[in-house]
Amino acid sequence: MNFVSFEFAFFLTLVFGVYWLVLGKSIKLQNLFLLVVSYIFYGWWDWRFLSLIVFSSVVDFICGILLERFESKFAKRCTLAVSLASNLGLLLFFKYFGFFVESTAEALEFFGFAANLPTLNILLPVGISFYTFQTLSYSIDVYRGKLKAETNWIAFFAYVAFFPQLVAGPIERATNFLPQFLVPRTFNYDSAFEGIKQMAWGFFKKVAIADNCAVMVDEIFKNYEQLSSTMLLLGVVYFAVQIYCDFSGYSDIAIGCAALLGFKLCANFRYPYFSRDVAEFWRRWHISLSTWFRDYLYIPLGGSRAGKWTSIRNVFIVFLVSGLWHGANWTFVVWGLIHALMFLPLLLTSSNRSNLDDVAYGKMVPSLSEIARVFSTFFVVCLAWVFFRSPTLADATAYLIRLFVSGDFGISVDYLWIVPLILFLFIFEWLCRSKPFPTFSFNSPGLNLMGYFLLVYTTSVFCRQTATFIYFQF
Amino acid sequence: MFRFLKNVTLIVLAYAAFAFCASTILYHCGLVTPRDEPLAELKLQAVQDNDYSMLMVGSSRFYRHLDPELIEDKLGAAGHDFSVYNMGVPGLWPPRQDKFLERVEEVTTPKILLVEINKPKSLIGNMRSGSVIRSVDLPAASEAILISKETASDTRTFLEFGGSYFAALLYKYSGIGLFRYALGDETDNIELAKNRFRHSEHGYLSLDREQKTGLGSVGEQKPVKQQELDKQRIENLEKYNADQGRLSPTLLAKCQAAIERVDAQGCRLIYVLTPRMGKSDLAAVYPVFDKLPVAHKIDLSSPNEYPEFYSLRYSFDKGHLNEDGSQLMSIALAEKLDQLLTPTAESQTKMSATR
Question: Most buried among B2, B4, B228, B320, by the most CB within 10 A?
Answer without folding.
Answer: B320
